Amino acid sequence: GVLRAHCERLARTVDSDERRQRHNGKPLACDPLNERNACGRRLEGKEWSSARKHNESCFLCQLFGNTSLASHFRIEDGYPKNPDAVRQEERNGVAIDRVFGSVAVGPFNYETVTAGEFQTSLHLKNFTLAQLGLLSLALRDLSAERVRIGFAKSRGLGVVTGKVTELTLRYPLCELDGEQLRFLGGKALDKSKLYGVGAFVAENEGYGYPSSDEVALPPNYGYIADEWLGVEVRAPSRDDAGADWQPLGRACVAQWKAVVEDGR
């Protein structure tokens, strides 16, 4: 929820009337509280194919889903990396009546975590490079402590620092034939480029993916065979600093910029 809300904030910041006009009035991020504007409300009850529902959804709903479209993004529960290092405190508070200035609710007690390191895993399937670029911006802001999570953020809580320890992009329908990268079926691909789902889906399938969904691979990145005969790309490790994922993120941000400027 925090990542989706921040991605929506980023999308609405750069969206414009001109871009929406080029894209038949469809915003980058719909308003889920507006019954006429929300993608889920518009698509409910429609006997359309999944491809058309995907194409009719806004950019954010194509990534995170809505009530008529499954999400491409999944996050696992976060657990303490070292439970003994987690520090919890109990604090008290009250809710103030905004009219009279008196206590409306309380006093009450709540628990907060003031120290500790938690780890989770993020999964993104069938992604476009523009989606990966927008998600990279959100992760950048999270790692820079620009995004707070949870309760009482305005009172100093929710400050977190994110770190990407590993980044792997898997292509199960591709293979390495010697030094040649191929899509299953024989189509040759450029090993110096990174591909999104738009490079593998035909335009006539109706999903609305960009056909030129590719960028140059950053230095020190490359394709390797995985244990299931597919291929994968891994971000280089920086020892204790985690994975060196930001060069790949910056490369994909260029595709996100193209969506904003060209209305694709």
Secondary-structure map:
Blueprint: H1 2-14, H2 17-22, H3 39-43, H4 50-56, H5 59-64, E1 73-75, E2 79-80, E3 87-96, E4 103-115, E5 118-119, E6 122-124, H6 129-143, E7 168-171, E8 174-177, E9 180-183, E10 187-189, E11 193-195, E12 214-216, E13 223-225, E14 231-234, H7 246-262
Antiparallel strand pairs: 1-6, 2-5, 3-4, 7-14, 8-9, 9-10, 11-12, 13-14
3D structure, described in words:
The model has no long low-confidence stretch (mean pLDDT 88). The chain has a three-stranded antiparallel beta sheet, with no helix packed on it. The protein has 264 residues and is α+β, with helices and mostly antiparallel strands. It is built from seven helices and 14 strands. The longest helix has 17 residues, at 246-262. Helix 1 (2-14) packs across helix 6 (129-143) and helix 6 crosses helix 7. 23% of the residues are buried.
What is this entry, summarized?
Helices cover 26% and strands 23% of the residues. With 264 residues, the chain is α+β, with helices and mostly antiparallel strands.
SSE pattern: HHHHHEEEEEEHEEEEEEEEH
Helical content stands at 25-40%
Quaternary structure type: single chain
Average pLDDT level: 88
Low-confidence stretches: none
Separation, N- and C-terminal Cα atoms:
25 Å
Structural class: alpha+beta
Count every helix, treating DSSP H or I runs of 4 or more residues as helices: 7
CA-based shape = globular
Approximately what portion of the residues adopt beta-strand conformation? 15-25%
Q: Which value, in Å, is the CA radius of gyration? A: 22 Å
- Main pleated-sheet profile: 3 strands, antiparallel
Q: How many individual β-strands?
A: 14
What is the topology, as strand order, of the major beta sheet? 7-14-13
